[in-house]
Write a structure and sequence with these properties.
This protein is of the alpha/beta class. It contains 13 helices and ten strands. The strands form two sheets. It has a six-stranded parallel beta sheet, with helices on both faces. The protein has a four-stranded parallel beta sheet with strand order 1-2-3-4, sandwiched between helices. The protein is elongated.
Length: 340
């Protein structure tokens, strides 16, 4: 379901004026209409063969293929929304699906649930289903050898920012914070681990690091398959992000009892209780981030305590078994209603 559907186009346009993006979507629809009709026919055939009690989708586009097919209206539809869906990010056809067609929605965090409610969606339909984490599994993964040596691992302060290199993730904020951390006298290195999603942004951030004199302390690790091992080797994990659903990197860091500092966006707020399971700094606030790093370094006992409390929180509230049970309860509820 990579293409936009006809329903998104028809429900997304208001009045006679169309923006450039809407025109582009319409053009893509016309080009791909035969493929869309074929996929829709295949979906109908599959549903007829399987006779499911419930259909669950993880995004609006694929859900629309089922939700807007008249002959499949008897099948309860559940959508699992794993991002931070602020009201401006919910498309009009998505609101229609949620309000008129969906039997239930899974929101990945309480913040996503609140945002969906602010979009006019019935709160009775919305169930919070967090991303799960297996603490013991994470600990076992972290004990494996690194795929390759980490640069400047001898530094006493090793700051890890795990996430694709993109302006949304805020690597530039971390680079500016590093300058302040070094000025405070800490011997630190910043590890950036993740895909180079936006190469132009990568080059701009590298230029920033050169300009403020920290390029020799910023390491760009790229995509790595050994993130748990890197987390174990780090002193702390930071996330200067602008938008998050329910970030797995924080779940993983907390499972490993690592001190975590993040901007308070989206589902991060379901994970960090300030000074209990981690620290907050404002979005774009390199001064605040530097203060968090400084606090972790200067008060190692408090940092260790926050890490241990965060790990215990993961064990108590985010296990796979708990989240599976929550999902099954909703499936049974809407499935029984549908059969009735």
């Amino acid at each position: 379901f990579k293409q936009k559907t006809a329903y998104e186009i028809s429900l997304g346009l208001v009045g006679s004026e169309m923006c450039i993006r809407d025109r582009y979507r319409l053009w893509r629809l016309l080009v791909s209409s035969r493929s869309l009709l074929k996929v829709r026919a295949q979906a109908k055939e599959l549903m007829s063969e399987l006779k499911p009690s419930v259909v669950c989708s993880n995004d609006f586009r694929s859900a629309s293929m089922i939700g807007m097919t008249f002959s499949l209206r008897h099948i309860p539809l559940v959508i699992h929304l794993r991002g931070w869906y602020t009201p401006d990010r919910v498309p009009k056809y998505g609101k229609w699906l949620c309000q008129k067609r969906c039997a239930a929605l899974f929101a990945v965090s309480h913040q996503t649930k609140t945002a969906l409610m602010c979009s006019g969606i019935d709160p009775k339909k919305i169930h919070v289903l967090h991303n799960p984490i297996d603490v013991d599994e994470m600990l076992a993964l972290a004990d494996r050898p690194l795929d390759s040596p980490l640069p400047q691992a001898e530094r006493p302060v090793r700051i890890l920012l795990p996430g694709c290199v993109d302006e949304l993730k805020g690597q530039h904020v971390a680079v500016k914070a590093l300058r302040r951390v070094l000025d405070l006298g800490h011997d630190a290195v910043l590890w950036n681990a993740g895909w180079f999603l936006d190469k132009d942004y990568l080059e701009r951030t590298k230029s920033l690091a050169e300009k403020i004199g920290v390029a020799d302390r910023v390491e760009w690790l790229g995509h790595r398959n050994d993130i748990p091992q890197i987390m174990k080797a780090s002193s702390m994990v930071i996330l200067p992000t602008r938008s998050e659903g329910h970030p797995r990197v924080i779940l993983e860091a907390m499972s490993l009892a690592k001190p975590v500092a993040s901007s308070p966006v989206g589902g991060v707020c379901d994970l960090i209780a300030p000074n209990i399971t981690g620290l907050y700094f404002d979005v774009h606030d390199d001064v605040g981030l530097a203060k968090c790093i400084d606090q972790f370094v200067r008060d190692e006992e408090a940092a260790r305590r926050m890490g241990q409390q965060a790990q215990e929180y993961m064990r108590l509230s985010f296990t796979p078994a708990q989240q599976v049970e929550k999902a099954l309860q909703v499936f049974h509820l809407v499935g029984n209603k549908g059969s009735g």
